[in-house]
Amino acid sequence: MKFMLLQNYGGMTREVPPMGEWTPAAVEAHIAYQKDLNAELRERGELVEAQALTTPDLAKFVVSDGGATPVVTDGPFTESKELLAGYRMIDVESVERALEIAAQGSAAPAHDGAPIEQAIEVREVMGPIEH
Amino acid sequence: MRPRGDIEGLLRDAAPRALAAVVRRFGDFSDSEDAVQEAMIEAARQWPAQGTPESPVGWLVHVASRRLTDRIRSESARRRREDAVAADRSEGGPSEELDLDPVGGEDDALVLMFMCCHPALTPPSAIALTLRAVGGLTTAEIASAFLVPEATMAQRIARAKQSIKASPEPFAMPAGEERAERLRSVLRVIYLIFNEGYVTSAGAELARAELAAEAVRLGRMAHLALPEDPEVAGLLALMLLTDARRAARADAGGELIPLDEQDRGLWDGAAIEEGIALLNEAVGRGAVGEYQLQAAIAAEHARAARPGDTDWGKILGLYGLLEQVTGNPMVSLNRAIAAAMVDGPAAGLGLLEGLDDRLEGHHRLHATRAHLLQMAGATAAAIAEYEAAADRTDSVPERNYLTRQAARLNERRA
Question: Which residues of chain A have a CB within 8 Å of the CB of B255?
Fold first, then answer.
């Protein structure tokens, strides 16, 4: 079963300052945690892909009516907390395992070393009809 | 599919020359490439047991040509049967007289590079085709180096071959001004391949490091074919001098280490020596171009045993020349850093002011300004610029580096 684990800019269940205001050690610990998690999933054959996206500052929205000039709106956006920050695509045996991995992602260390408690959206990828 | 050891090296050197010879004879790039690939598989099977032929290129040309001739024969035979028309004895296929020592040699590989950097192709297509046809990499290897699925890369290469097939451009060296123009494309494609490999990327570091080595190899081939061209030598020197810092450029976790914090003992002395020798020879030939200038700057850094020994005055002069030659605002950013090292941060910050229009919102502008503000002791402003840069970069290691810089300054301030 394939799942997308989606991480938005918002979705923090507690007060966490922007990363630029963390101590270098806290930044280091957070980055190392994410890398280790990816390495662990890769090792277990469960990681399909993990990507971080560029920030909402660089985001664009495109609307086209099929005519000549689509409407392109540039960032930054005030509602940027709802935008995607990154994702992991995993391929696992069960929905329980997907939730377990999401929990690991949600518990990455924050500025104070305690889990960041960020909400991770877990979405199963639709399969072919035989699925 | 690739065989190991000496035979692998032999095959990879021979393949582009064989391909060039087969394309010259049969005209069709795509079919010729398939045939040479098949011949290489055959070679990988036969050579270890039967020994390496005296002329590996000739052997590959012979086997590939035989396959193509067979294919053309069976196709025309099929057509004859379908048409129920008696065979014409003067069959239109290629001559079976195979010269086992193809003319051209090294130059053929260069013609092949010129073909792959065809103006009808976008840079990503030219890169993929160059790696496949000239570099002899498999589609799977190229796909993994560029982090795309193999089917995507196969399609990109197929489309590139179609574009070349559809173009009226003959398999030959373009003449005059067009030749110079095409050589610039070839050098740019090689440099793009190098940069793809040099920019570290977590998770896929190995595959990408091989791209840098591949670019150096292509640079050597071009230099061998055009030893008199100072820019070809300049590009090779630039790649060698830059690649020499590879071991010092990132930590064990793949995070970037800036030039002035690198362990210079890890730099590759042999590569530096070769790069500087190439550069000195090239500069003596006149016609200074952008690759020689960039190589000269890299050489200045390489010559300094410690960061404090760097001759920033000379580097500032070189960036000034490079700015004139290229008109590239990224070069102006680097000149501002050099100016700050020579005349103090205020001088550098002054130079940045003129760049807001051309580089508005670009992460490199913010990162450079952050660095110079930090030098000037304007900590709060530097932190804001580091954060702005981190928000705008599209590279994960770079974002990590910039975020860490901001965090360090914050800690120092607290």
Answer: 31
Write out the residues of chain B at the interface with chain A, using a CB-CB cutoff of 8 A: 202-203, 253, 255, 361, 383, 386-387, 390-394, 396, 399-400, 403-404, 406-408, 410-411
Residue B28, classed as helix, strand or coil, is: coil
Q: Determine contact, residues B219/B183, Cβ cutoff 8 Å.
A: no
Is the bond into A76 cis (omega within 30 degrees of 0)?
A: yes
- Judged against a pLDDT cut of 60, whether residue A49 lies above it is answered with yes
Q: What is the pLDDT of residue B171?
A: 62
% of chain B with per-residue pLDDT over 70:
89
Q: How many helices (H) does chain A have, and how many strands (E)? A: 2, 6
Domain total of chain A: 1
- pLDDT of B320 reads 96
For chain B, say whether A36 makes contact (Cβ under 8 Å).
Answer: no
Q: Which ipTM score applies to this complex?
A: 0.74
Tell me whether residue A130 is in a domain. no
- What confidence category does residue B99 fall into, taking pLDDT thresholds of 50, 70 and 90? very low
A–B: how many Cβ contacts below 8 A?
A: 50
Q: Does residue A28 sit within a domain?
A: yes
User: What sign for the dihedral angle of Cα B342, A20, B256, B138?
Assistant: negative
pLDDT of residue B306: 93
